[in-house]
Here is the input.
Amino acid sequence: MGFPSSFLCAQSHLQGAFWQAKIQVDFWTFFGDFLRLVTEEKKNPQRIHKFLSKEMTFRAAVVVATDVVREMQSIQNTYPLATMAVGRSMVAASLMASQLKSQQQVSLYFRGDGPLEMFFAEATHEGQVRGYTPQPQLEMPVEGGELSVSKAIGSGLLSVVHSRPQQKAPQKGTVSLQTGEVGEDVAFYLLQSQQVRSLVALGVKVNSYGLVQGAGGVLIELMPGCPEETVERLESNLKKAGSLSELVSQGISAADLLKPYVDGIEMMELEHPYELAYQCRCSRERLARALVLLGEEEVKSMIANNESAKARCEFCGRPYEIEVSELSELLQKMQSESH
Ligand SMILES: [Zn+2]
Here is the structure.
Protein backbone atom coordinates (compact mmCIF):
# COMPACT_ATOMS: atom_id res chain seq x y z
CA MET A 1 0.00 0.00 0.00
CA GLY A 2 1.33 3.35 -0.99
CA PHE A 3 1.22 6.65 0.86
CA PRO A 4 -1.86 8.78 0.46
CA SER A 5 -1.36 11.15 -2.43
CA SER A 6 -1.97 14.18 -0.25
CA PHE A 7 1.02 13.16 1.92
CA LEU A 8 3.26 12.90 -1.15
CA CYS A 9 2.08 16.27 -2.26
CA ALA A 10 2.78 17.77 1.09
CA GLN A 11 6.22 16.22 1.18
CA SER A 12 7.23 17.41 -2.26
CA HIS A 13 5.90 20.83 -1.40
CA LEU A 14 8.00 20.84 1.73
CA GLN A 15 11.00 19.61 -0.18
CA GLY A 16 10.58 22.38 -2.70
CA ALA A 17 10.61 24.92 0.09
CA PHE A 18 13.62 23.22 1.61
CA TRP A 19 15.56 23.50 -1.66
CA GLN A 20 14.53 27.08 -2.04
CA ALA A 21 15.72 27.81 1.45
CA LYS A 22 18.97 25.94 0.82
CA ILE A 23 19.62 27.86 -2.37
CA GLN A 24 19.04 31.07 -0.47
CA VAL A 25 21.41 29.99 2.29
CA ASP A 26 23.98 28.99 -0.34
CA PHE A 27 23.58 32.31 -2.03
CA TRP A 28 24.07 34.22 1.20
CA THR A 29 27.01 32.05 2.20
CA PHE A 30 28.54 32.66 -1.19
CA PHE A 31 27.75 36.35 -1.04
CA GLY A 32 29.11 36.55 2.48
CA ASP A 33 32.33 34.81 1.43
CA PHE A 34 32.63 37.14 -1.50
CA LEU A 35 32.12 40.17 0.72
CA ARG A 36 34.60 38.84 3.25
CA LEU A 37 37.12 38.32 0.47
CA VAL A 38 36.70 41.86 -0.77
CA THR A 39 36.83 43.44 2.66
CA GLU A 40 39.71 41.23 3.78
CA GLU A 41 41.69 42.32 0.79
CA LYS A 42 41.05 45.89 1.82
CA LYS A 43 41.76 45.16 5.47
CA ASN A 44 44.86 43.18 4.61
CA PRO A 45 47.10 45.39 2.50
CA GLN A 46 50.63 44.25 1.80
CA ARG A 47 53.12 45.38 4.40
CA ILE A 48 56.59 44.58 5.59
CA HIS A 49 56.81 42.29 8.58
CA LYS A 50 59.81 42.66 10.87
CA PHE A 51 61.14 40.04 13.24
CA LEU A 52 63.94 39.59 15.73
CA SER A 53 65.32 36.23 16.76
CA LYS A 54 64.45 35.52 20.42
CA GLU A 55 68.16 35.38 21.21
CA MET A 56 68.64 38.73 19.46
CA THR A 57 71.31 37.32 17.18
CA PHE A 58 69.75 38.52 13.92
CA ARG A 59 66.85 40.53 12.58
CA ALA A 60 64.65 39.82 9.60
CA ALA A 61 62.30 41.76 7.34
CA VAL A 62 59.96 40.02 4.92
CA VAL A 63 57.47 41.27 2.38
CA VAL A 64 55.05 40.15 -0.29
CA ALA A 65 55.17 43.10 -2.68
CA THR A 66 53.18 41.83 -5.65
CA ASP A 67 50.77 44.81 -5.67
CA VAL A 68 53.40 47.57 -5.82
CA VAL A 69 55.47 45.80 -8.49
CA ARG A 70 52.28 45.29 -10.53
CA GLU A 71 51.53 48.97 -10.19
CA MET A 72 55.01 49.94 -11.37
CA GLN A 73 54.54 47.63 -14.35
CA SER A 74 51.17 49.07 -15.29
CA ILE A 75 52.50 52.64 -15.12
CA GLN A 76 55.72 52.06 -17.04
CA ASN A 77 54.55 49.16 -19.23
CA THR A 78 57.71 47.22 -18.43
CA TYR A 79 58.60 43.99 -20.24
CA PRO A 80 59.79 40.99 -18.18
CA LEU A 81 63.48 41.93 -17.88
CA ALA A 82 62.82 45.46 -16.67
CA THR A 83 59.96 44.21 -14.46
CA MET A 84 62.33 41.79 -12.74
CA ALA A 85 65.16 44.30 -12.37
CA VAL A 86 63.05 47.21 -11.12
CA GLY A 87 60.77 44.90 -9.11
CA ARG A 88 63.64 43.22 -7.27
CA SER A 89 65.24 46.56 -6.50
CA MET A 90 61.89 47.89 -5.20
CA VAL A 91 61.58 44.88 -2.89
CA ALA A 92 65.19 45.31 -1.70
CA ALA A 93 64.77 49.06 -1.10
CA SER A 94 61.53 48.48 0.85
CA LEU A 95 63.15 45.87 3.08
CA MET A 96 66.23 48.03 3.70
CA ALA A 97 64.16 51.14 4.41
CA SER A 98 62.02 49.25 6.93
CA GLN A 99 65.14 48.84 9.08
CA LEU A 100 65.91 52.59 9.09
CA LYS A 101 64.43 55.15 11.44
CA SER A 102 61.14 56.94 10.74
CA GLN A 103 61.17 59.51 7.93
CA GLN A 104 64.38 58.10 6.50
CA GLN A 105 64.65 56.68 3.01
CA VAL A 106 66.95 54.61 0.86
CA SER A 107 67.59 54.78 -2.88
CA LEU A 108 69.32 52.10 -4.93
CA TYR A 109 70.94 52.99 -8.26
CA PHE A 110 72.16 50.12 -10.42
CA ARG A 111 74.30 51.29 -13.34
CA GLY A 112 76.05 49.02 -15.80
CA ASP A 113 77.56 48.73 -19.27
CA GLY A 114 74.82 46.33 -20.45
CA PRO A 115 71.81 47.30 -22.59
CA LEU A 116 69.56 47.90 -19.56
CA GLU A 117 71.87 50.83 -18.63
CA MET A 118 70.37 51.51 -15.22
CA PHE A 119 67.51 50.82 -12.88
CA PHE A 120 66.49 52.53 -9.71
CA ALA A 121 64.29 52.07 -6.66
CA GLU A 122 63.54 54.22 -3.67
CA ALA A 123 61.62 53.45 -0.47
CA THR A 124 60.79 55.21 2.75
CA HIS A 125 60.69 53.69 6.22
CA GLU A 126 56.90 54.14 6.10
CA GLY A 127 56.51 51.87 3.07
CA GLN A 128 56.27 54.27 0.14
CA VAL A 129 58.17 52.81 -2.76
CA ARG A 130 58.82 53.62 -6.41
CA GLY A 131 61.09 52.36 -9.16
CA TYR A 132 62.21 53.21 -12.66
CA THR A 133 64.38 52.23 -15.61
CA PRO A 134 64.99 54.19 -18.81
CA GLN A 135 64.78 50.88 -20.75
CA PRO A 136 61.36 49.51 -19.76
CA GLN A 137 60.85 47.47 -22.91
CA LEU A 138 64.29 45.95 -23.36
CA GLU A 139 64.19 42.42 -24.79
CA MET A 140 67.08 39.98 -24.70
CA PRO A 141 67.48 36.35 -25.71
CA VAL A 142 66.42 33.85 -23.05
CA GLU A 143 69.26 31.53 -22.11
CA GLY A 144 68.56 28.20 -20.46
CA GLY A 145 64.93 29.15 -19.97
CA GLU A 146 65.80 32.11 -17.74
CA LEU A 147 65.97 35.83 -18.28
CA SER A 148 69.18 37.26 -16.89
CA VAL A 149 69.08 40.65 -15.17
CA SER A 150 72.82 40.15 -14.69
CA LYS A 151 73.49 40.08 -18.44
CA ALA A 152 71.10 42.96 -19.06
CA ILE A 153 72.83 45.33 -16.63
CA GLY A 154 76.38 44.08 -17.33
CA SER A 155 79.24 45.08 -15.08
CA GLY A 156 78.92 48.28 -13.15
CA LEU A 157 78.13 49.84 -9.82
CA LEU A 158 75.47 49.87 -7.14
CA SER A 159 75.11 53.18 -5.32
CA VAL A 160 73.03 53.34 -2.18
CA VAL A 161 71.84 56.71 -0.94
CA HIS A 162 70.52 56.93 2.59
CA SER A 163 68.62 60.16 3.32
CA ARG A 164 67.68 61.44 6.74
CA PRO A 165 65.34 64.40 7.06
CA GLN A 166 67.54 66.25 9.57
CA GLN A 167 70.71 65.96 7.52
CA LYS A 168 71.20 68.06 4.43
CA ALA A 169 73.71 65.81 2.71
CA PRO A 170 72.61 62.21 2.32
CA GLN A 171 75.03 59.39 2.99
CA LYS A 172 76.17 57.59 -0.14
CA GLY A 173 77.99 54.29 -0.60
CA THR A 174 79.06 52.66 -3.86
CA VAL A 175 80.16 49.10 -4.52
CA SER A 176 80.87 47.19 -7.70
CA LEU A 177 78.12 44.87 -8.91
CA GLN A 178 78.74 41.26 -7.86
CA THR A 179 76.26 39.49 -10.08
CA GLY A 180 73.85 42.26 -11.10
CA GLU A 181 70.96 40.03 -9.97
CA VAL A 182 70.25 42.56 -7.15
CA GLY A 183 70.16 40.29 -4.06
CA GLU A 184 73.88 39.48 -3.99
CA ASP A 185 74.73 43.09 -4.80
CA VAL A 186 72.69 44.40 -1.87
CA ALA A 187 74.28 41.81 0.45
CA PHE A 188 77.73 42.87 -0.75
CA TYR A 189 76.89 46.54 -0.14
CA LEU A 190 75.70 45.78 3.40
CA LEU A 191 78.94 43.94 4.12
CA GLN A 192 81.27 46.51 2.56
CA SER A 193 79.59 49.71 3.68
CA GLN A 194 77.79 48.72 6.87
CA GLN A 195 79.88 45.73 7.98
CA VAL A 196 76.65 43.73 8.23
CA ARG A 197 76.54 40.08 7.19
CA SER A 198 73.22 39.39 5.55
CA LEU A 199 71.10 37.09 3.49
CA VAL A 200 69.03 38.73 0.79
CA ALA A 201 66.50 36.63 -1.13
CA LEU A 202 64.41 38.47 -3.71
CA GLY A 203 61.93 37.17 -6.24
CA VAL A 204 59.74 38.61 -8.98
CA LYS A 205 57.85 36.10 -11.09
CA VAL A 206 56.49 37.13 -14.45
CA ASN A 207 53.96 34.81 -16.15
CA SER A 208 53.87 33.83 -19.82
CA TYR A 209 51.78 36.94 -20.60
CA GLY A 210 54.55 39.10 -19.15
CA LEU A 211 52.46 40.05 -16.12
CA VAL A 212 53.67 40.06 -12.52
CA GLN A 213 52.49 36.92 -10.80
CA GLY A 214 54.29 37.43 -7.52
CA ALA A 215 56.98 39.57 -5.93
CA GLY A 216 58.58 39.48 -2.53
CA GLY A 217 61.72 39.14 -0.51
CA VAL A 218 63.49 38.32 2.70
CA LEU A 219 66.30 40.30 4.32
CA ILE A 220 68.13 38.72 7.24
CA GLU A 221 70.84 40.77 8.95
CA LEU A 222 73.15 39.24 11.53
CA MET A 223 73.89 41.17 14.71
CA PRO A 224 77.53 41.48 15.72
CA GLY A 225 78.57 38.33 17.56
CA CYS A 226 75.88 36.12 16.07
CA PRO A 227 77.00 32.59 17.01
CA GLU A 228 78.38 30.40 14.25
CA GLU A 229 75.81 27.66 14.85
CA THR A 230 73.00 30.15 14.10
CA VAL A 231 74.79 31.19 10.91
CA GLU A 232 75.12 27.54 9.88
CA ARG A 233 71.46 26.94 10.61
CA LEU A 234 70.44 29.96 8.48
CA GLU A 235 72.68 28.79 5.66
CA SER A 236 71.29 25.27 5.66
CA ASN A 237 67.74 26.68 5.83
CA LEU A 238 68.51 28.85 2.80
CA LYS A 239 69.61 25.80 0.80
CA LYS A 240 66.32 24.06 1.60
CA ALA A 241 64.06 27.11 1.23
CA GLY A 242 63.19 26.60 -2.45
CA SER A 243 62.23 29.25 -4.95
CA LEU A 244 61.01 32.44 -3.33
CA SER A 245 59.35 33.71 -6.50
CA GLU A 246 57.36 30.44 -6.75
CA LEU A 247 56.18 30.82 -3.16
CA VAL A 248 55.03 34.42 -3.60
CA SER A 249 53.28 33.47 -6.85
CA GLN A 250 51.25 30.90 -4.94
CA GLY A 251 49.88 33.66 -2.72
CA ILE A 252 51.80 32.88 0.47
CA SER A 253 51.57 35.35 3.38
CA ALA A 254 54.64 37.32 4.44
CA ALA A 255 54.93 35.52 7.77
CA ASP A 256 54.79 32.12 6.05
CA LEU A 257 57.32 33.27 3.48
CA LEU A 258 59.89 33.78 6.24
CA LYS A 259 59.29 30.42 7.93
CA PRO A 260 61.58 28.19 5.83
CA TYR A 261 64.46 30.67 6.29
CA VAL A 262 64.23 30.68 10.09
CA ASP A 263 63.23 27.04 10.54
CA GLY A 264 64.18 25.82 14.02
CA ILE A 265 64.87 29.35 15.35
CA GLU A 266 62.47 31.16 17.67
CA MET A 267 61.40 34.55 16.37
CA MET A 268 59.36 37.44 17.70
CA GLU A 269 57.53 39.92 15.51
CA LEU A 270 58.23 43.63 15.88
CA GLU A 271 55.78 46.46 15.38
CA HIS A 272 55.86 47.88 11.85
CA PRO A 273 52.33 48.94 10.93
CA TYR A 274 52.96 50.69 7.60
CA GLU A 275 51.21 49.68 4.41
CA LEU A 276 53.36 49.21 1.35
CA ALA A 277 52.27 51.63 -1.37
CA TYR A 278 53.52 52.70 -4.75
CA GLN A 279 53.92 56.37 -4.12
CA CYS A 280 55.70 59.17 -5.77
CA ARG A 281 56.79 62.45 -4.29
CA CYS A 282 56.57 64.27 -7.58
CA SER A 283 55.05 67.74 -7.66
CA ARG A 284 54.56 70.50 -10.21
CA GLU A 285 57.44 72.37 -8.62
CA ARG A 286 59.87 69.45 -8.80
CA LEU A 287 58.94 68.64 -12.34
CA ALA A 288 59.19 72.26 -13.47
CA ARG A 289 62.62 72.44 -11.85
CA ALA A 290 63.74 69.31 -13.68
CA LEU A 291 62.43 70.73 -16.96
CA VAL A 292 64.31 73.98 -16.52
CA LEU A 293 67.49 72.11 -15.52
CA LEU A 294 67.33 69.75 -18.46
CA GLY A 295 66.46 72.18 -21.20
CA GLU A 296 66.97 75.80 -20.27
CA GLU A 297 66.99 76.90 -23.94
CA GLU A 298 63.84 74.97 -24.72
CA VAL A 299 62.05 76.41 -21.71
CA LYS A 300 63.11 79.92 -22.73
CA SER A 301 61.62 79.45 -26.18
CA MET A 302 58.41 78.06 -24.69
CA ILE A 303 58.11 81.15 -22.54
CA ALA A 304 58.81 83.35 -25.56
CA ASN A 305 56.09 81.54 -27.54
CA ASN A 306 53.69 81.60 -24.59
CA GLU A 307 53.44 77.78 -24.55
CA SER A 308 52.76 75.81 -21.39
CA ALA A 309 54.79 72.66 -20.75
CA LYS A 310 53.08 69.29 -20.62
CA ALA A 311 54.96 66.50 -18.92
CA ARG A 312 54.28 63.15 -17.32
CA CYS A 313 56.08 61.80 -14.27
CA GLU A 314 57.84 58.61 -15.32
CA PHE A 315 57.56 57.03 -11.87
CA CYS A 316 53.84 57.37 -11.30
CA GLY A 317 52.41 58.42 -14.66
CA ARG A 318 50.80 61.57 -13.25
CA PRO A 319 50.35 64.20 -15.98
CA TYR A 320 51.28 67.82 -15.33
CA GLU A 321 50.72 71.01 -17.20
CA ILE A 322 53.04 73.79 -16.16
CA GLU A 323 51.90 77.27 -17.05
CA VAL A 324 54.13 79.83 -18.72
CA SER A 325 53.99 82.08 -15.68
CA GLU A 326 55.25 79.23 -13.47
CA LEU A 327 58.04 78.39 -15.91
CA SER A 328 59.30 81.96 -16.16
CA GLU A 329 59.17 82.35 -12.39
CA LEU A 330 61.30 79.23 -11.95
CA LEU A 331 63.71 80.21 -14.67
CA GLN A 332 64.25 83.58 -13.03
CA LYS A 333 64.69 82.00 -9.62
CA MET A 334 67.22 79.47 -10.89
CA GLN A 335 69.15 82.05 -12.86
CA SER A 336 69.37 84.34 -9.83
CA GLU A 337 70.52 81.39 -7.67
CA SER A 338 73.29 80.50 -10.07
CA HIS A 339 74.67 84.08 -10.20
ZN1 LIG B 1 55.34 60.92 -9.83
User: Anything to note?
Assistant: The pocket of zinc ion is lined by residues 280, 282, 313, 315-316, 318 (CB under 6 Å). The chain is about 45% helix and 25% strand.
